[in-house]
Amino acid sequence: MRSHYISDAVKLEEGVEVTVAGWLHELRDIKKIVFAVLRDRSGMIQITAKRGAVPDEVVDSLINPKETVLQVSGRIAKGKGAKAGVELIPSSVAVLGKVYDKVPFDVADKEKIPELDVRLDNRHVDLRRPEIQAIFRIRGTVQQAFREYLLQEGFEEIVPTTIVSAATEGGAELFPIVYFDKEAFLAQSPQLYKQMAVIGGMDRVFMQSLVYRAEPHSTTTHLNEAYQMDIEMGFADDNDVMNIEEKVLIHILKSVAERRSAELDLLHATVNVPQSIPRFTYSALIEKLRANGEKIEWGDDFNRAHEKLIGEIVGSEAYFITKWPTKLRAFYSMPSKENVEVCNAFDLIYRGLEISSGAQRIHDPLLLEEQIRGRGLDPANFEFYIRTFKAGAPPHAGWSIGAERLTMKICNLDNIREATLFPRDMTRLAP
Fold this sequence. Notes:
Mean pLDDT: 95
CATH topology of the largest domain: BirA Bifunctional Protein, domain 2
Distance between the termini: 28 Å
Oligomer: single chain
Radius of gyration: 27 Å
């Protein structure tokens, strides 16, 4: 229904005939002349219809409520008042989609932006704003770059299930579902399955997968349905997978900076591509915080304010926190050989927010049972997990990046729901 997208049409020579299609973004009727702005996913073009020069029926066909879907054919002309310096002189206009109800808010009004909940209730209209499309183009590039880098490093892509019979991380925050006559849940993590792939001999795997957490959070950084970008790597420890993650994040940031500069400009966002990502042990950062007047004890977890302050202290937007206290991490995190009070687990912080966590896993079932008992838990309740390692499991490690959190920080957004096409939180189940 079109010969060109608008971004291509505005580059053509004067006099070239084109057909474009999109939404009516703006309309001005000043008696003898009608100015309209048509918008598609690629950009906008001014349509100038002067009565007498253009048939009256063509001019009248342009006059519609904003957001009407139009198909416009005509010739490219130079336009002094047009934003792109180019306008379209129409020869025919067809209405492809009428506006039947009042549009909930004006897509073209940059001053009166509605509240986020209003926008999310009407996401089909909100997505028409160029700034919102920019967010999801950036997110698409984030996910594409993640896949690109890992494929070139010899990782294989897998697709884990999101329906499970029991908690994959030992927690209770699960969404139950009806699965014929059986008890089932939505998966809170693909971890068991990526570990099984490595134990099965696939060695280096990655995935992009939805996960579900039935946690009653009501914050700007949590979702109940989130999108994870995961890897698991056999014959590897925490340092090996941190090396991979460092290169993955650098590749993602570089890809966004190079491929999405227009979208970043639209969002007034910037991306700085680091040469490397520094690593600091948990203990070293405790000392740095204390030296800066923070009251924090060894064994305390870092809060958001701590993570932001650490970034300022170390002078880096991205940094790793390594060698965490064992008691603060999941039971399957491998204790350090030098000191069992710390483990081979790590977090990746970007612009003051944890975007990733990972660890070397315990691959010895006897040590795994020991760690479970040490948490006051019964290994019998984790038999589904423990038996995975009884058929010969290599040392392995992995990590997961939250796609929404990373996109949120790259785009300089205030709320993680803005980086989610159709977010699911405590109260939102539609659209």
